Amino acid sequence: MFASLFLVARIIAAWVAAIIVAAFLWSGVFSGMDESPGWFFGLLAMLVMVSVLISTISHLRRVWLVAGRLDHGTLSSRQRRQIEVPFDAGVAFDLLDAAIRELPRSEEIESARDSLQVSAKVKRVDIYGGKPPSRFNVFARFAITRNQVLATVTPRNGISSVLLICGPDADAWTDLFTLDDGSNLENAEALTRALTHRVAEHRRGEQAAAEQTATEKELTVARLNLLHAQVEPHFLYNTLASAQVLTRTDPARADQMLGHLIQYLRSSLPRTEDSLSTLGDELQLTQAYLEILKIRMGARLNLHIEVPDSLKALPLPSMMLQTLVENAIKHGLEPKPGGGTVWILARQHDDHATLTVADDGQGFNTQSSGTGIGLKNLRERLRLTYGPAASFAIVSNFPNGVAATLTLPKPAEGARHVA
Predict the structure, then answer these.
(1) What are phi and psi of 191, to 5 degrees?
(2) Is the pLDDT of residue 415 over 60?
(3) What is the pTM of this model?
(4) Which of 50, 60, 51 is nearest to 2 (CA)?
(5) Which of 34, 111, 219, 373 is the most buried (most CB within 10 A)?
């Protein structure tokens, strides 16, 4: 209430002072006349004061409707807002610029991204009729027809501070005589709401994107675990059948085979917390598998391994080496009467490493009973794990057999694999 009375008193005092000055000028103009039209000046002054009072009351009522309170901050024709935005300056500027451009009746918008400033003019209208101010308004001859908006973004440690200034498009001295019917308060509140809404929308977009990424990651892990869990049944059945026969003919070798099978199965169980193993761990698993096959195939299976110690920590999708070795034996050496040799070769290069599994078996032929599921799963796991950074190639080995090569990215310096 005190702020309202002070505003009314200030406006009336300014106009009374202006009328007094006008009265001196009036008396000076008509000083030579016998009868000066003082009654006309008095009537005019009374109409002006009534119009001023009505305009002031209209301003108070409009501010009350917009803000719900009357105080110095809401009654002022020049509004200032400081808004903290939880984004960097570039994003905050884009949100602010879009909010000002969508402000009703905005025009002459100037946007300077380098200086992080946006300015605009906003047309004033009759708040009740939606038209330009009436000609019968005593202030119409010098009425301010536009407001202005000036907004600045200031970066602050990962967030941004937005300063909004809304006021009449006129010099400050006009505030002594004119009021804006709460139009600048309304502009400031509208921009604050619009900016808050856009920040919330941006946050929801980020949250939706994060949830989508999390969902895709979960699906990828599920697909990797499913591929990992596909242990070829025929190997398990054949090993158990061989062990059953050996228990009657050679119990010691049967016990040895079962020991290697237990080690193999323990190592090949899927690990849901991490789909990546290391080349060294996978080599141990593959050697357990090969020891079982040596008992079954005897002298028909030879093995040659060249893996430098420096590459044994290389991250490698689990069971991937095992898949290549199984393929080499199942489709290359087992069908060959005399058996053959499997080579496991790892080579280190500048920014990548290669892992090759080769054999001197039957090679590519039309009589293979394979379905291609193993290599299809391998390619899919490689894509899910490394994207375009890894590749797989399978070619004929000279003079016979097949060579399958994985090209894998080397981890960055200082990177540590967590198993």
Answers:
(1) -65, -40
(2) no
(3) 0.51
(4) 60
(5) 111
